[in-house]
Write a structure and sequence with these properties.
By secondary structure, this protein is α+β, with helices and mostly antiparallel strands. About 50% of the residues lie in helices and about 20% in strands.
Length: about 220
Amino acid sequence: MTTVPVIEAGTLALPGSPATGSTGLEEARAWLARELHDGAVQRLTVMSVEIERLRRRSGLGGELDPLQSGVRAALNDLRRLLYDLRDEPPVDTSFVAGVRDLLSELSRAAIVADLVVQGWPDELPFDMAANLRRICGEALANVRRHSGASRVTVTLQALAGSLALTVADDGRGLGRAEAGFGRRGMAERAREMRGHISVKSAPGRGTIVRCIVPHGGDR
C-alpha cells in the first residue's frame, strides 16, 4: 500500500525517506508528480483513446463529445499541475484536439466545419494555448450566432518564427454593428502574446479572422 507524504509543522516525511527541509519538499514534489503521471494521467489517457475508438465504431460522436472534452480538460489540468510540481514551464499537448471539439459544436448546428493543420507544433506554452483557444472559440461563436454561414474552415499553420490561426466562413459578412463584436477581447489576448488580429469581411462574401503570434526562436 502506497504511503502518502506527511507534512507537519514544517517537517516533511517522504515514503522511505527521513529527509526534511527544502530537499525533502523537492523530493515529495517529484514523488507526487510521478504518482500522478503513472496513475491518474495514464488512466485518463487510456480513457480518451477508448472514447475516440468508441466514437468511430458506434457513430455516437455527438453523444460522446462532451465526455471526451471533459476527459481532455482533466488531462490538461493534471499536466499543468505536474509541470508546477516539477517547477517547469507548463505546456499544452491537446490544442488541436480542443479545436476539433469546438468544431464539433458547429457540426451539430448544421454548419460544415473543416480543420486544416499545417506544421502545427505538438506542444504549446500553456498560456499561449489558452489564449489561442479563447480566440478561436470567440470567432467560431460569432460564426454560429451571427454569420448565417453554411461552412467554416479553421487553419492552424506554422510560419517562420510564428503561428497563424485562421477562421474563415462563407456567411453574410460583418455589418457595421457587428464589426467590433468580440474583437476587443480577441485583440487583447493577441497582444498578450505579442501578436495581432486581423479581420477581413465584405457583405455576402464571408469573414476571415486571423491571429498571428510569435513562436520559437523569435518569441
